[in-house]
Known about the structure:
Mean pLDDT of chain A: 94
Largest sheet of chain B: 6 strands, mixed
Number of helices of chain B: 0
Radius of gyration of chain A: 13 Å
Number of strands of chain B: 11
Oligomer: heterodimer
Order of helices and strands of chain A: EEEEEEEEEEE
Distance between the termini of chain A: 37 Å
Number of helices of chain A: 0
Low-confidence stretches of chain B: none
Largest interface: A-B, 24 and 23 residues
Strand content of chain A: over 45%
Helix content of chain B: under 10%
Order of helices and strands of chain B: EEEEEEEEEEE
Helix content of chain A: under 10%
Amino acid sequence: EPEVTQTPSHQVTQMGQEVILRCVPISNHLYFYWYRQILGQKVEFLVSFYNNEISEKSEIFDDQFSVERPDGSNFTLKIRSTKLEDSAMYFCASSDWTQYEQYFGPGTRLTVT
Amino acid sequence: KQEVTQIPAALSVPEGENLVLNCSFTDSAIYNLQWFRQDPGKGLTSLLLIQSSQREQTSGRLNASLDKSSGRSTLYIAASQPGDSATYLCAVLRGAQKLVFGQGTRLTINP
């Protein structure tokens, strides 16, 4: 069964460094999403992406964040200058043309020290 | 703004009991509602998805109901097992773009 994959599973970085989290969505999916979950808190929507454009973003998704689909398979989330409060589990998800169900990857745990 | 609330925040029951987890949402204009399971430090496993036009969905020992008009959903787990111990998350799909999640119910099944 096709699945969403994410790399790395765990990333440790120093405050102020740039990080790129990578996702490979399900191959025929058209809509892509990033969510994050700070330890002990709710899963929060960050951004949705379609046709090489951001279609919706939350107030969390400020200028420090960017998303890109650099090729036909990868979908990336870049944090330009990480802060301690960016430490969280980041989930990628994708959905097909119906947008009916989002399929989640296993997550990347980002630790900012 | 859509808010999703789950009650109780934590639940501990003996093995074999049937149990109900509750989810409420403030805006009934949803596309669907989904229940997830999350093990500690792990990802999200989709359990059941209920379309906005449906009243319930079943998978094995799990049954989820949806009452859009009252903004409520329940997840019923029959004959609970220790392996069911996890956090259960409810999420509603709003605007076909983003899922709005509840805080979750942390379930412990005691052998």
